[in-house]
Amino acid sequence: MPQKLVGKQRREQLIHWLEASQVPLTGTELAGRANVSRQVIVQDISLLKAQDHPIIATSNGYLYMKQEQPSSLCRRIIACKHEPQATREELYTIVDYGAAVEDVIIEHPIYGDLKASLMIHHRADVDQFVTKVEEAQAAYLLELTDGIHNHTITAQDESQLDQVCQALKAKGYLVE
To answer: Which residues have C-beta within 8 Å of that of residue 160, sequence separation ≥ 6?
Structure first.
């Protein structure tokens, strides 16, 4: 059994593990490595975020947003509307054109903008996200806004983003 990491030492190790990883690490995985509960990890992540560490929580786990992220990526925020059961098809459409879905954003009437990091790059990511929502019997954010939501999408060039928008428009998902 690994030694239980405590306090500052554990948080420093969390930063090290997150910085070294190319994929999201779940709270459960980090808890196992540190020999603590998942709740301790959640609290540590909150403390690290409060200290301005660029950690984001995605549907697949925690990511440390490295400063050397490719600046050559083109980024666009798009507005979409569809029923919850069309989520998989919408996300497939985006990734099939080589774009990535960074997040989903809704405008809540009470809380204002609510943003959830997704970091979806491939069909496998889409399947994993949709499966998690279904298994948790959770609601998609778009269910709070009659299907209206935004996505930040990224791609290597503007033409890919244009193709995504054309495909989403053809399916009736793009709000213009």
So the answer is: 74, 97, 98, 99
